[in-house]
Amino acid sequence: QMRLVESGGGLVQPGGSLRLSCATSGSSLDYYAINWFRQAPGKEREGVACLSHDDGRTYYADSVEDRFTISRDNAKSAGYLQMNSLKPEDTAVYYCATDLFGTCAAIRGEEMDFWGQGTQVTVSS
Known about the structure:
The chain contains no helices and eleven strands. By secondary structure, the protein is an all-beta fold.
């Protein structure tokens, strides 16, 4: 069983940056892909970014490509999402999730094995 805890959310002005962290425990992160999802009020959950468990393959949603960067530090059992040039439409609850041996061919919530509780990101002036 793996436990995930997100942190780093908050209120930021448009154009600003935030770095989300996902601390994991309970199982080795080495064999899991790291994924980030978000859900805004009244909208469906959206897969934002993925980093594979082995070869560094990444996947980004079109809406965040070139603005967000996903990374991981297996030694610290953590994943990260650097978010730059934030827009009001990025406002959402952000969740990290892991899937065993994930390859990031796509990001599908139903394929995730473990989820965090989410952290709120609000982009507003």
